[in-house]
Write a sequence for this structure.
């Protein structure tokens, strides 16, 4: 799938380059929110609802280790979002790859978490709704991934003024 324009919930972007900037800003801000929430839960905050990620975690052990992993991941995702912005501005494909890997992990986690909710607590109707909301958010994240991948495909592999000289030399 290849996109030429990008729609975000509030704005329409005429190309995937400006849409990728919006996606990078979205993931940067969402990572900061998730980092804040995870810190809150690790310090004894409320996570007793069935659909929350740390629902079955013990505050003294598994919440701390799972939360530490989440904090490290969201710090990585904040850094990769900033690197994505830098990569979009400078049209360097390699700077887009860390974000794409991180978003792939986010999508995998959301698919797994929604499936776990359905199979683990299928008798509760509100959990089915929570899983559907999670999968809708996952679908939006997949769309964001496709937007960035479309811009990734638009950027040339190697941009240098020397390439023209090499082409002229190869033709001689």
């Amino acid at each position: 799938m290849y996109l030429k324009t990008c729609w975000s919930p509030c704005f329409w972007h005429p190309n995937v380059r400006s849409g990728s900037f919006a996606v990078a800003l979205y993931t940067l801000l969402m990572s900061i929110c998730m980092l804040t929430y995870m810190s809150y839960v690790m310090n004894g905050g409320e996570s007793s609802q069935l659909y929350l990620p740390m629902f079955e975690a013990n505050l003294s052990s598994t919440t701390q280790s799972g939360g530490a992993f989440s904090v490290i991941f969201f710090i990585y995702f904040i850094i990769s979002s900033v690197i994505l912005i830098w990569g979009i501005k400078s049209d360097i494909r390699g700077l887009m790859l860390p974000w794409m890997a991180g978003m792939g992990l986010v999508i995998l986690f959301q698919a797994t978490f929604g499936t776990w909710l359905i199979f683990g607590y299928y008798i509760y109707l509100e959990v089915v709704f929570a899983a559907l909301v999670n999968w809708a958010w996952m679908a939006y994240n997949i769309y964001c991934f496709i937007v960035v991948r479309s811009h990734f495909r638009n950027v040339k592999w190697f941009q240098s003024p020397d390439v023209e000289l090499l082409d002229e030399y190869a033709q001689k």
